[in-house]
Amino acid sequence: MAINKCKVYINGSLIGFSNNPEKLKNDLIKKRRKGEIDAQINISYIKDINELYLSTDSGRLQRPLIILDNGKSKLTKEIYQEVKENKLHWNDLIEKGIIEYLDAEEEENALVAIDEKDITPDHTHLEISGTAIFSIISSMIPFINHNMAGKAIFGAKIFKQAVGLPSINYKNRFDTEMHVLYYPQKPLVTTRTEKMLGIDKRPMIQNCVVAIMPFEGYNMLDAMILNKGSIERGLGRSSYYRSYSAQENRYPSGQADEFIVPSENILGYRGEEAYVSLGIDGLANVESYVPNGGVIIGMSSPPRFVEEISDFGIVSEDRRESSVTARKHLDGFIDRVLVSQTVGGIKLAKVKVRTTLIPQIGDKFSSHHGQKGVIGAVVDEADMPFTASGIKPDFIMNPHSIPSRMTLGHLFETIAGKAGALLGDEIDGTAYYADKDYIFKLLKKYGFREDGKETFYNGTTGEKIDMPIFVGPISFKRLYHVVTNKIQARDGGSIQLLTRQPTEGKEKGGGLRFGEMEGDALVSHGAAMLLHEKLMDDADELEVYVCDDCGVLAIDDKIRNRRYCPICDGGNISKVKINYGFKLLLDELKSLGVYPKLNIGDKIE
Length: 605
Hints:
With about 600 residues, this protein is of the alpha+beta class. The chain folds into 5 domains: about 5-130, Hypothetical Protein Ta0175, Chain: A, domain 2 (Alpha-Beta Complex), CATH 3.90.1070; about 155-235 and about 360-480, DNA-directed RNA polymerase, subunit 2, domain 6 (Dna-directed Rna Polymerase Ii 140kd Polypeptide, Chain: B, Domain 6); about 240-355, CATH 2.40.50.150; about 490-535, RNA polymerase alpha subunit dimerisation domain (DCoH-like), CATH 3.90.1800.10; about 540-590, DCoH-like (Alpha-Beta Complex), CATH 3.90.1800.10. Strands 12-28-13-26-25-32 form a 6-stranded mixed β-barrel. Strands 5, 6, 7, 8 and 9 form a 5-stranded mixed beta sheet that branches. Strand 5 (about 60-70) and strand 6 (about 70-75) form a beta hairpin. The mean pLDDT is about 90.
């Protein structure tokens, strides 16, 4: 019977049974190492359920490991020397069975040593390098092996949000959105991965002096204090580029759009001051200033219909204004203008606007270790706390942000950065290979404490602060989450046609959604008046007439000045306030053949 035999699967499909799965597994692995079967195939035997899995499909995550044979590495000194001399390459090592790829399933049955000195007879594989455990982005974080796994992943994600030098040819590109940091720097504490990738040549950080201490409550939770003097010296300053485009579309009527400076006889004319930055071709002049919502590409379009009747009842073919304007919250300068044509020969214009973003309250910064936060206050340089040697920090972080997240790597990078600044050289912070004792010796040699703490004085009173403060230079990234792009408020404005509720989204001048959970919060506080204001007065309040007898919405005949019920024709009508969205629901129920009845309580006199 095949019941007690080991089931053998290929890519999840049962293909047979085996009496000796251990032997079958070992034979297949030997064949893979000899090159008799493909190097990408993975074999895993799960003893508990007595099943053997062979995986050959694409999309599996694999990682290379050095094979151990009876507790000895197959990558001998002789082979290593040949690799150094370029006599052997990566593929040669795989073909010779020195390195193999393991996926997550096969790795379950492997015991991997991080270093050669850790090898025991039980180990099956050896890491190529301790740093190779991490992804390319993760291994760019210094001292990542001292961070909690969650924060290591967080730190890797923040790399993708950093403002730096996005490309060498950024001046010629017309990306929809692009951020460029003004003064990017090489990090004081680097890793081997960063060196290999050449991150030094295209940096995304600035080395900032960061102190960890509370400050007047303005850096509660994840907020940070920023030194105003640092901003004035260019810290975190960046440019935000946004591209706008338009084309002269042709219409079936034979008419077309046109790039022009709109004149007064065009419908929707915005006034002379709106077109100040435009040249005679209808496109904005390079380096001219564009205010919020200013016209960037002047355009006129033909009427929506071939013949439109004007207010005076005569046929009119006035063209209408259809200019492209800058985003409402962003003013800036015209950086570049491109005029071209599409494949169909239609004239195309692209305009790039440059906005200078100076760090302000609400902007976001982060270290490599996922210690991110927004600016809670910008403090005058004169009021910043200072060390005995007169150094004032650029940032002040909250002490509570370190122990709760257990990012020791952040502290190590600060200490290593201080040692590197004193030495005048980069410090290697590669995971598992950083020499911490050397860093501590450097600090001691230059007369600093090994724990990175220094005596501080209150910037306002000049008094000595009782506790020594942890301070040092660390690489900080400015993230592209800037408050200018996010801040939103409105008192009134456009509403949706169907529901009569405020439109959604910042660009449309929309309102902030006050949902069910927010309403529940007000209910729990007993704030009935505020709840009514938010859900009625500020939204879609509607006064309707309701028949007291049959509970349906009555008809308000304004021409005959008469209100009556469409069902019972009764005159017993009450005036009530409801949401327009609720009235819409009643109409939809009626269309489904459902009879919604309203019972009137308190009446408006």
